[in-house]
Amino acid sequence: MDMTAEIGIFGGTGLYDFASGLEEVTVETPYGPPSDVLAVGEVAGRRVAFLPRHGRSHAIPPHMINYRANIWAMKELGVTRIIGPTAAGSLQPHIRPGDFVVSDQFVDRTSGRKDTFYDGPITTHVSSAEPYCPELRPHAIEAGRHVGVTVHDHGTVVVIQGPRFSTIAESKWFTSMGWEVINMTQYPECFLAKELGICYVNVALITDYDAGLVSGGEAVTHADVLTIMQQNSDNVRKLILEFIKRIPQERGCDCAHVLARSRG
Fold it and tell me: Which of 138, 181, 246, 261 could disulfide-link 157, Cβ–Cβ 3.0 to 4.6 Å?
């Protein structure tokens, strides 16, 4: 039984539909258990590992996710590329609910999260100037356009602590800064992948306008988010399936060599 994978996806069971030969595997990590067991199978001839970041029953809120264990578990299975689909809010009027954004930058507004594998005695300072893989991002954008969804080719995602949504004042601030997307799970997930030399790309499904400010509508509710996610679940699967088909067999980026360029 082959329980290795080259591509990892953080997503719930709805994303497993297009995989064949799925087998479950429990991975132990030095950082405790990941959010759930991983499911490993084949998609478009590639070995893929799936892990629901919130757990299968969506019982783990964003601020309680064991991000280090999740990334380490992917690494243990041999994963070198990670796709991180997320639900997210829009901070700008031209990015509408139902659109997709392939993020290129983040702003961290979280607090107290375990966000590094280098707590000592080894100290390593990894650059996060370019947090998302520059090789994978264009393939994600092309995949979305191929399947006919609206894809924005860049966007700064503001990562808030959660589980609460933004206040009006916070949302006004984020919008005035020109940032495009708001989410609760991109940090430290994407940065921890970088620390382990794993390519990471975010595909954000826009479910709402944050605090209703951009659209002049009502503030977001959890029910609103779920409605848009359900309406777009097929688009998410189609985009990811097409994206996997386009991922190069060999890595042509520098993500694997990030530690060689880091300062100790």
Answer: 181
CB 149 within 8 A of CB 97: no
Which residue out of 210, 224, 234, 254 is catalytically annotated?
A: 210
Specify the residue for token string 């589980």.
163
- 87 domain-assigned: yes
Residue 226 lies in a domain: yes
The predicted-structure confidence for 104-121, as pLDDT tens digits, reads as follows 999 999 999 999 999 988
Q: Which residues contact 212 (CB under 8 A, 6 or more apart)?
A: 218, 219, 220
198: helix, coil or strand?
coil
Please give the model's pTM, rounded to 2 decimal places: 0.93
**Does residue 1 belong to any structural domain of this protein?**
no
User: In total, how many domains does the chain have?
Assistant: 1
| Per-residue pLDDT reduced to its tens digit, 40-90 | 999 999 999 999 999 988 899 999 999 999 999 999 999 999 999 999 999
Residue 122 lies in a domain: yes
DSSP string covering 100-139: EE---EEEEE--S----S--SSS--B---SS-S-TTHHHH
The residue whose two tokens read 């995949």 is 143
| 210 given a catalytic annotation | yes
Catalytic option among 36, 99, 208, 224: 208
Q: Among this protein's residues, is 208 annotated catalytic?
A: yes
Q: How far apart are CA 171 and CA 173, in angstroms?
A: 5
Domain that holds residue 252: 7-261
Question: Tell me, what CATH number does 70's domain have?
Answer: 3.40.50.1580
Contact assessment for residue 110 and residue 160, using Cβ atoms and an 8 Å cutoff = yes
